[in-house]
Amino acid sequence: MTERGLVQPPPPITGPRTCDLAEVLERVLDKGIVIAGDIKIDLLDIELLTIRLRLFVSSVDTARKAGIDWWETDPALSSRAARDALAQENAQLRDRLHALESRMSRMDPDELSTIGDATAEKGGDA
């Protein structure tokens, strides 16, 4: 009788390790990537246009570590920044109003009436 042994399949061929898009994206966001380039348009040795492109792709945490946080202070992108900008504008307007009221309180009643008369002639409220 012949003894039949189990035949083992050959070991798998290993090539370069492939990774899917999710792994690549995770690495890029974790470490960050910088893409830089310049575009120059010259005509007869006269520089007409230069465009410098800098692109930094990363996660928010990586960007903060790199000292980049402009989205937190841009009112168009951050509701907190918009509130802060509005509060600052409000404070400036209140200061201006206070200064005008102070000036008016030091004026003679005759001067105040001439201001009111001039405003009424222009069609405004006195």
From TrEMBL:
| Protein biosynthesis as UniProt keyword | no
What InterPro entries does the record tag this protein with?
Answer: Gas-vesicle_GvpA-like, GvpA, GvpA-like_CS
Q: Where is this gene product found?
A: Gas vesicle
Where mainly found? other
Q: Which domain of life is it from?
A: Bacteria
Q: Which UniProt keywords apply?
A: Gas vesicle
| Spans annotated as Disordered | 102-126
Q: Does the keyword Ligase apply?
A: no
The Swiss-Prot or TrEMBL record describes its family as follows:
Belongs to the gas vesicle GvpA family.
Q: What is this protein called?
A: Gas vesicle structural protein
